[in-house]
Amino acid sequence: MTERVYLYDSTLRDGAQAQGIDFSVADKQAIASALDAFGIDYIEGGWPGANPTDDAFFAALPKTKTAKISAFGMTRRAGRSASNDPGLQDLLAVSTPTICLVGKTWDWQVETALKVSTSENLRMISESLAHIRAQGREAVFDAEHFFDGYKANPAYAIEALKAAHEGGAQWLVLCDTNGGSLPSEVKRIVSAVKDALPDAHLGIHCHNDTEQAVANSLAAVEAGVRQVQGTINGIGERCGNANLIAIIPTLMLKMGFDTGLMSEQLTHIGELSRLVDDRLNRAPDRHAAYVGASAFAHKGGLHVSAMNKDSRSYEHIDPALVGNSRLILVSDKAGRANIVSRLHQMGIKVADDDDHIGELVKAVKAREALGYAYEDASASFELMARERLGMAPRYYDLQSYRALNEYRLDEKNRAFDVAEATVKLTVAGEQVMTVAEGNGPVNALDAALRKALLPHYPQLAKMHLNDYKVRILTPSDATAALTRVMIESRDDQGRTWNTLGVSHNVIDASYHALRDAIVFYLMKAGAAPLRA
Fold first, then answer.
1. CB 521 within 8 A of CB 460
2. Distance in angstroms (rounded) separating the CA atoms of residues 261 and 268
3. Which of 100, 148, 239, 504 is deepest in the core (most CB within 10 A)?
4. How far apart are CA 94 and CA 385, in angstroms?
5. What's the pLDDT score for residue 134?
């Protein structure tokens, strides 16, 4: 029978301690609901009494179908009874089925941080957990600094675990709080704990200060741990926590453990990762294991050629297992195999030995040498490829455009700018000229193009500019430098696509990126090219 490993998420508590992260109550509720829908076993919601946000979250807990929400706190203070400790009362006042208590297991920390005797610390641990259990709650003990404590004084670290176990803790979680342990150390120490406490259920909680939190967590599982704590995308204090987004697929696909998740649920792990990033208003890590946009991206021609024969050549799993997909990149490193594979992915039917492929490879390499970057602008690549293959739709013909920025003074001698653009197009045999103003010449040019095209293509009202980036490619040329403009566009369904333009004139580069964005959208929206 496949062994079960339980997943304990600490994104809303330990993850919130990361610099720059400040969850709102709505953020915490949305993330908790997403974690439950995904299939996480435990969701650590925060520390009751620590701050108003956590208090508000626990006062309005989202309903969960499978996950247990856990409240986090610490063992009783020295000199107080468990039943008379304010911190424990705050924990018991919230209606969570599980309570996690953190306690010291490193004798040096006990004496220097808590400033109590080692024997009093053991009583604080056992009495606090016994009090939690007496109230009918599931009790989890986070053994803080356990691995450092064990390396300094193995006997005391084990005594602290025994005190928690005797107090009724259902999980003893071994914490690599400073994140400095090695996988070999973790495996050895967990094995020693298993020998000392054979009846205890063990967990692991690792920090990532040496980039080994995931490896340490997996080493602990190999040694017998059956609860893994971590955060989504590895967020957390200092260098972060163990990343559950990497741990979960590895447990299931590489190590054969049952995590309570079905295969179909695992395909949504990327969505969970991106939801947390969205809530934090930060861009997803495209190089993240399993879920990143580049996790299964292939650029080298040698690689792609081998991939076309057998995907196992350069992929450790089928991307579909984690809801991801293969991406064949087109760049100056591309060969025929890259181009053919990318065209097939785009739905463009072309024979592998088509004479146009060689010409397309040469064109890509020549343009990349000039500063184009098609791996980040697949929409522009597709349009360029269709043009070379004679498959590109023509929605309009440009006659000319002009964009200017005029400096003016008002009646009170205050300076202001006015940007204006004029475009002359031919659409369905009709000559069209439009003028528009905007917030800068590029915005004015975009407005003039839309003004000319909207009467013929009303779909454009659903297309919007998402992002606009300019990169100077030859800074040594100063104001005569070659410029690359990258535009990200989106539609009303949330779909995005990237286009680019390269020129010594930033307005010209912007026009080409805008033109590609418009043509690509109309093509994908199924707009029929208009002819005279």
1. yes
2. 11
3. 100
4. 61
5. 96
Give the type of residue at 114: L
Per the DSSP assignment, residues forming a β-bridge with 432 are 425
Tokens standing for residue 320: 């579909």
- Quote the pLDDT of residue 293: 79
Alpha-carbon gap, residue 105 to 121, rounded angstroms: 9
Percentage of the chain beyond pLDDT 90 is 65
22, 51 contact by CB (below 8 A): no
Task: Count other Cβ atoms within 10 Å, centred on residue 168.
Answer: 17
State the pLDDT at residue 329.
55
Report the C-alpha gap between 35 and 29 in whole angstroms: 10
The pLDDT assigned to 314 comes to: 66
Q: Is the pLDDT of residue 299 over 90?
A: no
Here the tokens at position 484 are: 């690359």
Q: ∠253-258-264 over CA atoms, to 5°? A: 65
Mean pLDDT for the chain overall: 90
Q: Quick count: other Cβ atoms within 10 Å of Cβ 360?
A: 25
Could you tell me which residue, 428 or 267, shows the higher pLDDT?
Answer: 267
The whole-angstrom separation of Cα 70 and Cα 8 is 9
User: Which pLDDT tens digit goes with each residue over 334-349?
Assistant: 556 667 777 777 777 7
User: Is 91:45 a contact under the CB 8 Å cutoff?
Assistant: no
The C-alpha torsion from 513 through 519 and 520 to 522, rounded to 10°, is 140
In this predicted model, what pLDDT tens digit does every residue of 190-247 receive, in sequence order?
A: 999 999 999 999 999 999 999 999 999 999 999 999 999 999 999 999 999 999 999 9
CB-based contact 107:158 (threshold 8 Å)? no
Average pLDDT over residues 308-330: 74
* Type of residue numbered 301: G
| Burial tier of 256 (Cβ tally within 10 Å: 0-12, 13-18, 19+) | exposed
| Rounded Cα distance, 37 and 35, in Å | 6
Buried b (16+ CB within 10 A) or exposed e, 430-464: eebebebebebbbbbbbbbbbebbeebbebbeebe
- The pLDDT confidence band at residue 332, using thresholds 50, 70 and 90, is very low
Give which of 300, 342, 295, 344 is closest to 321, Cα–Cα.
Answer: 295
